[in-house]
Amino acid sequence: MAFDRPKWFERGIRRQQLDDYIDRTGKATFGFKEVPASEKESWVRRHFDTVAPYYDFMNTLCSMGIHHLWKRMAVNRLRLRPGEVVLDVCGGTGDLSILAAEKTGPGGTVVLFDINREMIQAGRASKSHRSARKRIHYVQGNAEAISLPDEACDGAMVGFGIRNVTRLRRAFSEIYRVLKPGGRFMCLEFSKPVNPVFRRLYDFHSFHVMPLMGQLLVGNREGYVCLPETIRLFSLPDELAALLTDVGFADVAYRRLTNGIAVIHTGRKPG
Fold it and tell me: CA–CA distance from 187 to each of 34, 155, 156, 240, 262 (Å)?
């Protein structure tokens, strides 16, 4: 594959990020790098080890704070109720978990599940939202093998993390498994801006401004080159909706945010 310049890849290359191609070839991608599928987890771990200490700060700076609005809108779409059990897959430093804990209250349960211990620890050590963080249960593990029993959760969510999983379908199938019948699912992920002019501005910000910020502010340019690369290889909204439907989710829908920079996907486990 030719990864020599920033671009939005066509459907054929996006399909190479899916399970069947990865299982057939033994190859996966980390950003624009092609790596053995068995090694992608290690690449992801190393990447987030390096960005964990300043992850929240840089997210807010690079998005000009709008990611907080996206996340609140996304969690609202789950329609969580007091006392419910919620799983936050690829939960990172806990932004979605905190919002969920506010909805489910002291009688509810929020489980933050993430593969990277440094990200979990960065969230737990944060001084913001201390009372909500104390109510969150933290579990380290791989989204392709979630360590929860069948039909344990009323709701499940994943925000800006699913594209880093090696086998996307396997992860969605695991989320489906741990949901109760009637359980709700939400996936918030980056995507391709709709307007071509806006897209060009977004590309400039992604491949020039963000890496420069990473280099100047935290001494990590490479970490902020990888982020936009993974977005350009990820499934577009209609493709992801089709995958969720194929996994078994019902009432699958999506909503674009900020001209399509981010997309909220929702679905329900029948029952």
Answer: 25, 11, 9, 10, 10
Q: Which residues pair with 80 in a beta bridge?
A: none
Q: Is residue 244 part of a domain?
A: yes
26 domain-assigned: no
Tally of structural domains, the chain: 1
Q: Judge whether 246 lies within some domain.
A: yes
Q: Is residue 201 part of a domain?
A: no
- Owning domain of residue 186: 44-195+223-268
Q: What is the pTM of this model?
A: 0.94
Give me the CATH number covering residue 102: 3.40.50.150
261 with 189: CB under 8 angstroms? no
* Cα→Cα distances 191→102, 134, 179, 250, 263, Å: 28, 33, 26, 22, 7
Whether the Cβ atoms of residue 143 and residue 118 lie closer than 8 Å to each other: no
Distance CA 202, CA 261 (A): 8
Model confidence pLDDT, tens digit, residues 68-122 = 999 999 999 999 999 999 999 999 999 999 999 999 999 999 999 999 999 999 9
Q: How far apart are CA 74 and CA 256, in angstroms?
A: 11
